[in-house]
Amino acid sequence: NVRKIRIASVALAYGTMGIAGALIGREYGVSANTGLSVFLSAAVVMIVGGLVSFWPIFIAAIGLGLVKNLSLGMISDQWQPTITFAILVSYILYSLSKIRYPDIVKR
Fold first, then answer.
1. Contact 101, 54 (CB under 8 A)
2. How far is it, in rounded angstroms, from Cα 85 to Cα 46?
3. CA-CA to 13 of 20 to 30 Å: which in 5, 64, 103, 107?
4. Sign of the C-alpha dihedral computed for residues 73, 75, 78 and 81 taken in this order
C-alpha cells in the first residue's frame, strides 16, 4: 500500500531529524537562534535552486557551501549569515530584473 509506505517513510525521516536535533542540542547547547543559520542556508538553497528537480537544488547547495567556506579566510565566522542573505538578495534582484527588463538580461 503506497499510502502506508509514504506515512512510514515520513515518520522515519521526522524521527531521524528529531534524534539528530536532540543530539546536536546536547552537544552545542540550545538558544533562541540555534538553527537560524541552518534554516537561512536551507531557505536560500531552496529559493535559488527551485523546486523543480533535485540537481538545481544540489548545485545551489554545493555553490552556497563553497562560497561560505571560501569566504572564511577573508572574514569572520559571525558574518556567514550575512553572506547567505546577500546571496539571497542578489538572486532576488536578478530575478526581478529578469522579469521587469527581459531584453537587458538576455544580452
1. no
2. 13
3. 64
4. negative
Grid cell, residue 49, equals 535552486
Ordered alpha helix ranges (H), 29-106: 36-49, 54-70, 80-100, 102-106
Cell reading at 64: 552556497
Give the pLDDT confidence score for residue 99 in this predicted structure.
73
Q: What is the mean pLDDT of the chain?
A: 85
* CA distance linking residue 14 with residue 78, whole number of Å: 30
The model carries a pTM of: 0.64
Residues of the chain whose pLDDT is less than 50?
none
Q: For residue 75, give the DSSP letter.
A: S
Nearest of 88, 60, 84 to residue 72 by alpha carbon? 84
Are residues 84 and 68 in contact, defined by beta-carbon separation less than 8 angstroms?
Answer: yes
C-alpha–C-alpha distance, residues 18 and 29, integer Å? 15
Q: How distant, in Å, are the alpha carbons of 46, 80, 83 from that of 40?
A: 10, 10, 11
